[in-house]
Write a structure and sequence with these properties.
Strand order of the largest sheet: 4-3-2-1-5
Strand content: 15-25%
Structural class: alpha+beta
Distance between the termini: 104 Å
Number of strands: 7
Length: 183
C-alpha cells in the first residue's frame, strides 16, 4: 500500500494568496434559524443563494422555511426615536475595548449601558443584544465597512408655471338599471 506524504509548503502558499472578498453592508442579511450574518449572492422566487460572512460557505436558503432581515433595515429601540443598527455598531466601534462574552447576558447589558446608554433596555431583549455583539464581532473580523448605502440624490424638479383651467364639477353618472322582464 502506498504511503501518503503530507506537504506543508503548499498550505503556506495558499494561506499567503488568500483572496479577500469585499462585501457591501447593504447586501448583508440575518436569517431566522441560522446563526451568523450572510451575504445575498442571488435571489430566487423561492429563496436566496447566500454566503456566510464568517466561514465563506455558500448555500441555498428557502424563503418558505426561513425569514430574511437585511441588516440595513433593522432598527433598535431607544429612549427617544428608534435608531438604525448601523448607529449601534458605530457606537460599539467608538467604545473600543474588548467585546463581552456573548453568552453572558449581564455582561452584554453592562457593555451596552456604556457603549450606547440611550438604548431602551426594557424593550430590547438580552437575546437581541447578544445577536448584536455576535454580528458586530463577525463584521469586524471580516473587515466589512459598516455604513448605510447612500441613496442617489434625486434632482429636484424645476417648477414650471402651469395655466390652471377653471375647475368644473361634473355630476356623477347614474348607474344603469336593469329593466325587469314582464311576462
Amino acid at each position: 500500500m502506498p504511503q501518503l506524504i503530507y506537504l506543508a509548503a503548499p498550505k503556506r502558499i495558499i494561506e499567503e494568496k488568500r483572496i479577500k472578498i469585499y462585501m457591501e453592508y447593504s447586501k448583508l442579511v440575518a436569517i431566522s434559524g441560522l446563526p451568523g450574518v450572510f451575504e445575498v449572492i442571488n435571489s430566487k422566487t423561492d429563496g436566496a443563494i447566500v454566503r456566510s460572512v464568517d466561514d465563506k460557505t455558500t448555500r441555498f436558503v428557502s424563503s418558505r422555511i426561513h425569514q430574511f432581515s437585511q441588516l440595513e433595515s433593522i432598527e433598535v429601540y431607544t429612549t427617544a426615536d428608534n435608531v438604525n443598527l448601523v448607529e449601534i455598531f458605530q457606537a460599539m466601534d467608538k467604545a473600543g475595548g474588548q467585546l463581552p462574552d456573548e453568552k453572558d447576558a449581564t455582561a452584554v447589558k453592562k457593555y451596552f449601558e456604556k457603549a450606547y446608554p440611550e438604548m431602551d433596555f426594557e424593550r430590547v431583549y438580552a437575546s437581541d443584544m447578544k445577536k448584536m455583539v455576535k454580528w458586530f464581532d463577525i463584521l469586524k473580523k471580516n473587515e466589512v465597512e459598516i455604513k448605510l448605502s447612500e441613496e442617489p440624490e434625486a434632482e429636484e424638479p424645476v417648477a414650471t408655471p402651469v395655466e390652471e383651467a377653471p375647475a368644473t364639477e361634473e355630476a356623477p353618472k347614474k348607474k344603469a338599471t336593469r329593466k325587469k322582464k314582464t311576462e
